[in-house]
Each structure stands twice: as C-alpha cells, then as structure tokens.
Amino acid sequence: YANGEGVGKDASKAVEWFRKAAEQGNVRARSALSTMNVAKEQPRALDAVSIRKAAEQGNAEAQCSLGLMYGNGEGVGKDASKAVEWFRKAAEQGDAEAQFNLGVMYGKGDGVARDASKAAEWFRKAAKQGDKRAQYNVGVMSAAKGQPRSGNMREAAEQGDANAQHNLGVMYLTGDGVGQDVSKAIGWFRKAAEQGHAAAQHNLGVMYLKGDGVGQDVSKAVEWFRKAAKQGHKGAQNNLQLLINARTEAK
Asked: Is residue 102 a contact partner of residue 71, using CB atoms and an 8 Å limit?
C-alpha cells in the first residue's frame, strides 16, 4: 500500500497494516511506521503496552523491539538494565538482532557488567545468522587478540558492510591475515568507496596517484580525494591541497 504495488497507493492503509505488525513487535514495521509518522509530523512513539503484551507472550521480535525502546527511551523510560533483560529473552530464542544488541551492551558495559568474552559470544551467535554488523565486530575483536579475522571480515564485506570492505582492502594491501594482493585490495576499497566510506575513498585515491595496482591517473586520484575531503578526511584534504598547489606551480 505504501508503494502502490499491486494495489492503489494508500498511505493510511499502509499505516494501518504497519501498525498491526509493529504492535506485535515487528522491527521493520516499527521502522517503516516511524518514517511515515515523521513525514506526517506525527508522534513516533508506538503503543508500548501492545508491544509489551506481545513480548510477554514470548514473541522474540517484540522482546527485541521492547529492548530497543528501553535502550533509547522511546515510548518508555530509558532503562539499560531492562533493555538487556529483553534483549536476552529474544537472543536466547535465536533473534539475531537481539543477539547483536546484547553483544553491544556487554561490550559497552551498558546495563550489565562489561564483559568482552560475553560480547564476543553474542556477536558470534548473530554472525552465524548472517548479521553483517556482528560479523564485522567478531573480525575486529579477533584481530585485537591476534587471531585470524579474514573469515568474519569477508562475510561482512560480502554482505555489503562498508567498514568491513575497507578493512579487508587494507588486509589485502598489507598481507595481514591474507595473501598480499593489491588488485583485491583495490576491488574492496572501490566497493567501500562507492558506498561513501571516506577512508576507502582516500586509499583508492592514493592507489591512483601512485599507479599502485592500477594505471596512474591523477584526475581519478583527485576525484576520490575530493569525495573523502568533503567528509572531513584529513589525509584526503592534505593530498588534494598538495595536488592543487602542484598544478598551480606548474602553470
């Protein structure tokens, strides 16, 4: 109904159905409804009572949703310990979103004692279900312990996580945990850069400037430096200024 696919476009009916799903704790419906409500300048908070009812009946998605509400203070008083409680209920039922969120809470020590091993445990559970954020975090935590991280980083990268794509590019560039391969490094930098990742844009600019793994192309280097510089990347801003100064002196 929201997109007019197969039926006449009807925002009010879209809201009606999104609300029914949202009141059962459906996270995607909550997100869609919030977006539509913002567009109409309506309150974003949903009926916490309805979501709680579904959560107390054992609906994992509602439990995760209620955890998010407590974590953000959305529709209920902000309470990190209650957020952890509801995330745990959903996580133990196998909800990947809740597993990831519980990992975050343990990682930050928010509402629960900080515990890196428990954070990693929940991230791994979510990662096995394909959560790219969890896969990325597992990769980062493994690297901090000096363990191989390419597997988890690759999983996240292949699912489109720009941070993981950039990090995998760095790994291939330096031979960190994988065989050094400049062409693969460029490929991963490009994927991240095209998603707007500033560091990847800068690195891709450097590769073009040096002709490292690609044909040297100063104009492309400038193009990527400019994109990264607009996002405040200091290295890109410096490189861009150096190139501009060099061109000015040449004239």
From this structure: no
Confirm if 105 and 80 have CB atoms less than 8 A apart: yes
pLDDT (tens digit per residue) in 91-140? 999 998 899 999 999 988 999 998 888 988 898 888 888 777 777 777 66
Q: Which amino acid is at 250?
A: A
Place of tokens 């476009």: 9
Lowest mean pLDDT among 101-110, 143-152, 165-174: 143-152
Buried b (16+ CB within 10 A) or exposed e, 85-120: bbbbbbbeeebbbbbbbbbbbbbeeebbeeeeebbb
Is the separation of the CB atoms in 190 and 224 below 8 Å?
Answer: no
Tell me what pLDDT residue 20 has: 86
**What long-range pairs does 242-249 form, CB within 8 A, spacing at least 24?**
243/209, 243/218
Show the DSSP H helices in the chain as ranges. 11-22, 27-39, 48-56, 60-72, 80-91, 96-108, 116-128, 132-144, 150-158, 162-174, 182-194, 198-210, 218-230, 234-250
Of 250, 199, 208, nearest to 228 (Cα)? 199
Can you tell me the distance from the alpha carbon of 161 to that of 184, in angstroms, rounded to the nearest whole number? 16
Rounded Cα distance, 164 and 144, in Å: 15
Whole-number Å distance between alpha carbons of 96 and 180:
33
Q: What angle do CA 156, 164, 115 make, to 5 degrees?
A: 80
Using alpha carbons, select from 211, 213, 220 the residue that is nearest to residue 240: 220
Q: State how far the Cα of 188 lies from the Cα of 182, in Å rounded to an integer.
A: 10
Q: Which of 35, 44, 45, 46 is nearest to 11 (CA)?
A: 35
